[in-house]
Amino acid sequence: MFKTSLAILSAAICLSLSGCTSTEQKQNVTSVETVQHDNILLQPFQGPYQGVPQFDKMNLKDLEPALDTGMAEHLREIENIANNPAKPTFENTIVALEKSGKVLDRLFAYYGIWSSNVSSAEFREIQSRLVPKFSKYSTQITQNEALFSRVKAVYESDEYNSLTPEEQRITWTRYNGFTRNGATLKGEQAQRYADINLALAKLHTDFGNNVLADEENYVVYLTAEQLSGLPESFVASAAAAAKARGKEGMYAVTNSRSSMDPFLTYSTERELRKKVWSNYYNRGNNNGQHDNKDIIKEILKLRHERVSLLGYENYAAWRLEDRMAKKPENAMALMKQVWPAAIARVKEEVADMQAIADAQGANIKIKPWDYRFYAEKVRKAKYDLDSNEVKAYLQLDKLREAMFYVAGRLFNFEFSPVPAGSVPVFHPDVSVWEVTDKTSGENIGLWYLDPFARKGKRSGAWATSYRSHTTFDGKTNVLSSNNSNFVKAPEGQPTLISWDDAETYFHEFGHALHSLSSKVKYPSSNSGVRDYTEFQSQLLERWLSTEEVINQYLVHYKTGKPMPKSLVDKIKASATFNQGFSTTEYLASAIMDMLFHTTDPMKIGDPVEFEKTQLKALGMPEEIVMRHRTTHFGHVFSGEGYSSGYYGYLWAEVLTSDAAEAFAQSPGGFYDKDVAKRLVDYLFSVRNAMDPADAYRQFRGRDAKVEALMRDRGFPVSN
């Protein structure tokens, strides 16, 4: 996830207008002109590095008035652009739009922190008031007829042909954003479009807040007698988590993936595994105040109605039109090409697990809460590989150093810690590094890291940017951030994580590198195409298993000795282990996302029952559930970033596997200088200034092939 300026959001996402008269607009302008920006949330970033967010001074009481002021100021800028009497040109229309909205752009650096990193009941109450305001404001831009007329005129002008490729692309993006988001609607249809978006904005917020509430409210507390099988590092972290919640002497299994996953892998307490599994996978589906089923039904209905106003058959057809897949059928075809091999592999995995359970006299049939536990036993039996043994070599701080090493080799970046206190942060856990070019010493930007789980922080891992690189209005350097939910080890002990979590750590750092390596001119070029933006981050995962990283940074947390070759060989030999599970749980979510958005909402009914029915028809193994079950599928229902787009991870992984083979087959392997240069020049630094398909062909010399993905997962490759 990346923070995007509201000037970009206005033209690129589907938000709404409830109508604003010229009198109201004039009143807004008058009020803005008398406002002094004494609100820290509206002020230019201060201090070193071209200014940084003043996170230590942000005050929640300032948020609502800041948003009111910022929106009014941006609308004044928009009116000036739309009503310019001069002939529309790229400079006075498109560039003017790129320059607008800077106040709100800064504000949303703070808003994102309150929303994702330090949420609270007070913030969520304020957020409920802000969402409809923001929806109305956004549509005043996307349905501004005079503004759209000027953008259309530039797009259709002779001048367009003389623009640079980047300038043509941002002009097309602006034009396309307007046409796809209601700019051509009139009268009652325009009003209905606006009303729908206002309602959706609230529903998306309610959905996300319900999931967060269930994550905070469902915690399993263990006694010392219930710790059987759990590794020392997990026990220590669980004790710290319980103490932080006022339960000293107990052990907390929080309702987050980073806590749930290792507990299900190692705990010998089957009933407790079931309880932890149920808490996690039933988020948003507990039939109480925070239940999401009715919200989902309403979201689907409104999304379908909205795109029908624009003439689209269904929501997915609208969503994919400007993405690499182009059509839902293309995305579904890719998923169904992989699905049979995935579920076939699950059957093999379950048979192996059931055999071990039977041999041990467990007298059970493998259930979803058993999968990780017995998969770990199979891993040991087949590969003599103990995940807990691997974890001893995966220290969070050492992995961060490994990521810096890779960034230095591929991108020529150097990361230097910024002294504590010299750059404001929003929580003591946050650290900051300066990023420079190793050769010239030029400042590239800053990188913020917020690695640990805590109450009020949304689950998962993500990347965001507080400021993006541009050169069109003076060079601006990047402020990038990575955020995770690792369970923090007790004071003085290293935080140890699993191999999967280490890959996720590298993955999110790939997003940060994508932002830091930007060489684009205009802000809009830092936006992304959803089924492409995961490619760069997925690709960076591959460097975790390179010899250079393993030998230098994967060292035992007690002895300091590097991971032995025998253990490395086991890891590599088991690279395709459990791919049935990981591929199937992901694909089930991606396919359901597409089915929800290609089916008439009136035929869906209860979304949980629809999920069960559709997955059964697909032959979903009963031992696995969707990675993100419908009622907590935040990618899809807490906003529209990944709606009808969760398939994009697989689409991007086709590119990832193909690109990885380009490195693997080169003379210098994964650190080959020529391939790395093409990687940076065509796949990272250009961001969205070039069509992704063209960019990939520049890198590879051809389109990506799905066969590389199948080989990576150990699935049969058809001739």
Element layout with pairings:
Layout: H1 6-12, H2 22-33, H3 63-82, H4 90-99, H5 102-117, H6 121-142, H7 145-155, H8 165-180, H9 187-217, E1 220-222, H10 232-244, E2 251-253, H11 257-266, H12 270-281, H13 293-309, H14 315-320, H15 328-359, H16 371-383, H17 387-391, H18 396-411, E3 413-417, E4 431-437, E5 443-452, E6 462-467, E7 478-486, H19 499-516, H20 530-540, H21 547-553, H22 565-573, H23 579-596, H24 607-618, H25 634-637, H26 648-664, H27 673-684, H28 692-700, H29 707-712
Parallel strand pairs: 5-7
Antiparallel strand pairs: 1-2, 3-4, 4-5, 6-7
Percentage of residues in DSSP E strands: 5-15%
**CATH fold-type name of the domain at 6-184:** Neurolysin, domain 3
User: Radius of gyration over alpha carbons?
Assistant: 25 Å
Helical segment count: 29
> Can you tell me the overall shape?
globular
Please give the order of strands in the largest beta sheet: 3-4-5-7-6
- How many β-strand stretches? 7
Derived structural class: mainly alpha
